[in-house]
Design brief:
heterodimer, A: 102 residues, alpha+beta, 4-stranded antiparallel beta sheet, two-stranded antiparallel sheet, B: 415 residues, 26% strand
């Protein structure tokens, strides 16, 4: 059984978790080009080595970040996303707010 | 003792070298017209068709390990064309037609065995999806029909019609479904290609791709640098890593896929049987072993390790389908590395680097495409980058314009 050390729930069976993809900067969807959005949604580094990824503990609905080696299958470190994201990222702007309201 | 054997024994030539299917290893030349990165089925098939149909023989196939030793040897050798989209069905139907003729063409037995493939539906929604697939498949010349429980029982008498309390409502019966010896497919292509002058270099790893002014000019290998007019990457399982050497990213995530095989038993299972609800496909090989496969692993990895969880769930589902198999012993297990695209279609054609062609994103559907893939990639290279109609929908830039080819509904087992 592979164990994932969850920052919130402690060590749990990895089958309780869902892989959420690489941590990467999201472009502003209201201003970026289609190509930039496609790059963000579909393309990835897909590295063989140490990667930083989003993971979800499904049972508690808790998202966190894991550093993991994709060749040796070792989990190196897991931590709460607040270590990286220390302020709210606001994307909504006036134009989209109006479109939704209209 | 027959005289010929005595003569053979006294011969000065080492008989192996004279009768070998592949030529002895040679030195790398400094330059080739075409360099194919990856000596799996797709790579050698491309080389074969380049030589056969286009007269291009100044070609080197560079293989890190040995011929067909990667995912060509790790797939479960299912050949079928009952996909969902018209793009997919056209492509894979052509592949199935080519597979049927390969043994004759090679004069080398690939042990092609047309058994039919049966996919089970356990819900009304799946039955509806199967109706659509049957119609699309028939439209493009495949042989597929929807059959009921009675016909399923007759086809597969040993099948439990109520596996995991999910009654079998109907089946998608694909008569063209087949299997073949995957190693032999690679060997047949390699033999045919090298006889026509193509060079196959095993134990030759491409360590870097040389790109000058947006154009590929050569590759660096562990045996020295090679110049090339154009290059093709056919490295299933490592597509993103090779693309990174050429300087671009791909819309691919790489997962292992685990499979296993039991001890051999008497023949009992003619068709290849799969169930998307049970995430499992089962087939009996010509040797009598039963091969199981399922979906890819739940998280990305470049590692062919085995996990108990996946083996347990796969076996539990297989035993639900064929309860008597609970008495069998497993002989071997293994894993392959699958380059999954988000729309479950391959990535073929042009890349952001000029004269650098892609044959990638083969996820869990690569083996069955080997012949058509070789043929269309050869066409692409020979025409200097004019993309054949059959593979145009699979261009990598489909993701940039949000024009994916969604094959998700048409997988033998859920991914």
């Amino acid at each position: 059984m592979k164990i994932m050390p969850c920052p919130l729930n402690g060590p749990r069976n990895i089958s309780e978790f869902v892989h959420g993809g690489e941590v990467r900067d999201m472009p502003n969807p209201t201003t970026c080009t289609d190509r930039e959005w496609a790059e963000y949604v579909f393309y990835s580094d897909n590295q063989a080595g140490i990667v930083t990824e989003w993971w979800l503990h499904a049972a508690s609905g808790y998202w966190f970040i894991a550093e993991r080696h994709t060749v040796t299958d070792e989990i190196i470190r897991t931590y709460d996303p607040s270590e990286i994201f220390n302020q709210r990222v606001e994307f909504s702007d006036e134009t989209t707010a109006k479109e939704v309201g209209a | 003792m027959p005289f010929s054997l005595l003569k053979y024994g006294l011969n000065n030539d080492y008989p192996f070298e004279r009768d070998a299917d592949l030529p002895a290893p040679s030195e790398l030349k400094s330059s080739y017209d075409v360099v194919i990165i990856g000596g799996g089925g797709h790579g050698v098939a491309t080389a074969y068709y380049l030589a056969k149909y286009h007269g291009i023989t100044n070609v080197a196939v560079l293989e890190k390990g040995y011929l067909g030793g990667g995912n060509t040897a790790r797939n479960t050798a299912v050949i079928r064309s009952n996909y969902l989209t018209s793009e997919g069905v056209k492509f894979y139907s052509e592949s199935v037609n080519m597979f049927k003729e390969l043994s004759n063409e090679f004069d080398f037995n690939i042990m092609y065995s047309e058994r039919g493939q049966l996919t089970l539906a356990h819900t009304d929604a799946t039955v509806r999806a199967f109706r659509q697939r049957a119609e699309v498949n028939k439209h493009f010349g495949g042989r597929t029909e929807l059959i009921g429980p009675q016909e399923i029982k007759e086809l597969v008498p040993t099948l439990n019609m109520n596996p995991a309390h999910m009654p079998v409502l109907a089946g998608l019966w694909h008569m063209d479904g087949a299997t073949a010896r995957h190693d032999a497919v690679a060997w047949g292509y390699a033999k045919g290609a090298t006889q026509r002058g193509v060079e196959l270099h095993q134990l030759t790893e491409v360590t870097d791709v040389i790109v000058e002014n947006g154009k590929v000019t050569g590759v660096k290998t562990n045996r020295g640098t090679v110049q090339c007019g154009c290059a093709i990457q056919a490295v299933a399982g490592h597509s993103s890593l090779m693309a990174a050497k050429a300087g671009f990213r791909m819309p691919i995530t790489t997962y292992p896929l685990q499979a296993m095989v039991t001890q051999p038993v008497k023949p009992f299972l003619d068709p290849l049987v799969s169930s998307s609800a049970l995430h499992c496909y089962v087939q009996q090989t010509g040797r009598g072993e039963i091969v199981f496969g399922g979906g890819s692993d739940p998280y990305p990895l470049y590692n062919t390790r085995s996990t108990m969880e996946l083996k347990e769930s796969l076996l539990a589902h297989a035993i639900e389908m064929f309860p008597f198999m609970a008495n069998l012993r497993l002989m071997r297990q293994w894993a392959g590395i699958t380059d999954m695209t988000s729309d479950y279609s391959p990535i073929m054609g042009l890349s952001p680097v000029e004269n650098y062609y892609l044959d990638a994103g083969w996820g869990t559907w690569g083996f069955k495409a080997t012949p058509i893939c070789g043929k269309t990639m050869a066409e692409l290279v020979a025409s200097g980058g004019k993309v054949p109609d059959l593979i145009a929908p699979f261009a990598m830039d489909r993701f940039d314009v949000f024009r994916q080819v969604n094959e998700m509904g048409a997988t033998a087992a859920s991914h």
